[in-house]
Structures are given as C-alpha cells and as structure tokens.
Amino acid sequence: MNGPSLRLSFKLGLILFGLVAGALALVYLAVVPMLESRLVDGKIRELERAAVSVERPVEVGNPFNYDAVANAYEEVTGARVVILEQIDEGTLIVHADSRGLRSREVEKDPLALEAAASGQASGRVSRGGEEFAEAARRVGETTRIVLLASPLRDALATVENVQRALLLAGLFALVVSWLAGYLLARRHADRIRRLEAAAKRIAAGNFDAPVTDRGGDEVGQLARAFDEMRLRLAHLDHARKEFIANASHELRTPIFSLGGFLELLRDEELDERERGEFVGEMAGQVERLKRLATDLLDLSRLDAGQLAVERSELDLAQTARTVAEEFRVVAEAGGHALRVTGDSAVPAVGDEQRVLQIARILVENALRHTPAGTPVEVSAALRKGRAALSVRDEGPGIPVEAQKHLFDRFYRADGGKASGSGLGLAIAWELAARMEGAIELHSEPGETQFALELPTGAVAEKAIPRENGIRTATS
Q1: How far is CA 55 from the centre of its chain?
Q2: Which of its termini does the chain have fewer beta carbons within 10 Å around, N or C?
Q3: Which residues contact 235 (CB under 8 A, 6 or more apart)?
Q4: For the whole model, what pTM was predicted?
C-alpha cells in the first residue's frame, strides 16, 4: 500500500477509535456514578426503615436492656445498632453498641449529632478509613438517638467490579474499533487508489481498460461515473481521429486533383477546348474546397459555442420557394422534377439565413443522392403546433443502418463518393438544435422525407435559453 493510502487508513482508524473512546467515556461517566449512587441510596433507605422499627422499643424500654435491643436488631437488619444519649449540645454518650465497640468516634458521628438537633438524618460517612451508610433518629421527645450503620464495602466492591468490567470491555472495543476502522479504511483506500490509477490511464489517453467497482456506495457510483466518462472520452477521441482523417482526405482529394490539372495545363499542346474543360474542372474543385472550408469553419464555431443564431419571425413557405428557385437549374440538369407545394404562409421563429442554409443542404442531398428523374418536393406546413419545412423525394430510400449515422460528421451513405464531404447534415442537425428546432427523418423504399421543425411565430415573444447547449434533434 502506498503512503497516501496508509495515511488515510490510519487517520480513519484513529477517527473511529476517538469516536468509540468518546462514547465509552460517556457511558462510563453515566453508568458508574449512577450505579454507585443507587446502591448507596438503597442501603441508606433500608437503614432509615430499620431505624424507625428500633425507635419504639428504645423509647419504652429499660435502659438496662438497650444492649439486648441493639443486639436483637442487628441480627434482624444486619447493621450495627448504636443507642446514644445527648448530654448537652454537641455531646453524645453511647448507651449500647451491638458491636460492643463504644468508640468515641461514634459519639462524634455527624449524622447522630444532626439527628439530635433536627430529629433525623441519614447519609454516607467515612470512619476509620472505611465508608458507611448511616441512618439516625431521635427517639420521640427524649434525648436518646438510635444510629444504624452498615459498611458499604460490598456495594462499592460491586461498583468497582462494574467499573473494571467497563474498562476492560472499553479497551477491547477500542482495539477492535481501531482495527476494524483501519481495515475498512484500507479497503476504501484501495478502491480509491484504483480509481486514481484509472484516472491516470484515461488522462494518458488509454480508454480500453474499463473502470470497475462492484460496491453500491458512493465510491462505486464514482467508479461507474468514471467508466461513463471513459466511454464518452473514447467516443470523442475516436470521433476526433476520424474527423482529422476524413478532413485530411477531403482536403487532399481536391488539392491532388488541382495539382494534376495544373500539370496538364503546362502542356502547350492542349487545345482551347481541352484547356477550358480543365479550367472548369479546376473551378469545381476550388468550389468544393470553399464549401469544405466553410463547413469546417461552421462546425468549429458550433463546437466552440461562437456561432450566433438570431431569432426573428420568418415564413417557411417563402423559404421553400426561394430554395426551390435556387436549385431549379441544377434539378433540370439532373433530370429531377423539383416542385413546391403549399401557398399559405407558415410563420416560424429562427435565423432566416441559417434556415436557408439547412433548406439548401436538404434539397442538395435529395438531388445528389437520388437517380436522375426522381421527383423532389419542397413544402411548408404547420403540424403538431410546430412549423415544418419538408424535402421529400421518391428515391430508393435510405437503409435503416445508414439512418442511425446519417447526421454524424463525414458520414456518407453512398460509401464515400467524392460528391460530398459528409458534413452537410451534421451542420443542419446542430443548426436546427441551436434554433430550438429539430430535424426529423422518415425513409422507406420509394420515399425519403427530411423535415425541419421550428417554433411557430405564435411563440415569438417566449424567452428560450440559447446558450451553448444543444437540444437533441429527433431522427
């Protein structure tokens, strides 16, 4: 185990040790004094009741029989019975002592003196280095006092036994608690150390090894969050590498093509027709590079959250007519019948230029990826409380597997023909989401429809957060 883990284990074990020690101290302070007090008080109450029973025979008895009375009641109560007489204030003499001691120390007993003054007294006294429970009563209106005393050695021995047992049990509990805390902390420290190693692997770019922890506690939840992060980072890293590779390929193809045409143009034997064809091809490749550069710039600005999206009311029906007119010549050149349906206004809220950009992407895809002669329809309508601009074609449809990736960057369902960069639909998807919209796809053999959905003009005044987050569009 490394240093940090050892320190953590020791600290957590020490914390648990301190908590258990504190709890045991509280138990000790609550139990031992209370037990001692109850045992002593119980003994004193017994003596008080016995003193009442001794008072009567002393009051009516002959002083010459006090020794017999004292001895008899010691046998009954098990306590030392002393009968005293008050000579004057602060002075007592012993008439009878069941132990035959008649010590002067008893004549100065504070409880006996207190009973002579107040009528009765009881409590705990120390005499001759020993603890006693005592109860004293003045006999009627006389000056005689009955004193019962019982040693507390048995009660205090019981308290000492309990005290000793608590200390031993507490010491054992402290050792066990520290050991348990140390082992538990060590187990958690090992789990945290594995998470630390996993984090270092992920930071180094190794996303292959899963982060596993079978625990159901917070550490286990953290491990699962780490593994989710690993998978997301692995996906992002794969996407990054794929993006770089695809972008490099998309840039290299037209550059190599331009280089080849330049080599051919150096040939002075080319006639004007061939030279014109080459220049036209070069212009097409330059246009392709311009589109690719624009798309990459848009994607980088989207990723950085720097692409501004305005909010204004617009008419999707007018947008449909504008885009159809822009692509009229391209459609005729490819043998496509491009038509617009719907004449009524369809109010929507969005960025007019970005909506036009998305519409161009959808129409261009429909014309490019369907056979010649395939009809393409552009329409706008209100549906389910949303404004929608749809581009529908009667082509062969998009395979189900391809539909899952159609909005991924650089993905091309046609297997990678140089007719497109594979960025258009990805950009359209993210632009739609930035405008609180969505792009829906429905495709089957004989029909494919892309629909851009936006908030309607009726919610133009509704405040919608438009920070850097992107709402997922539906496909």
Answers
A1: 75
A2: N
A3: none
A4: 0.47
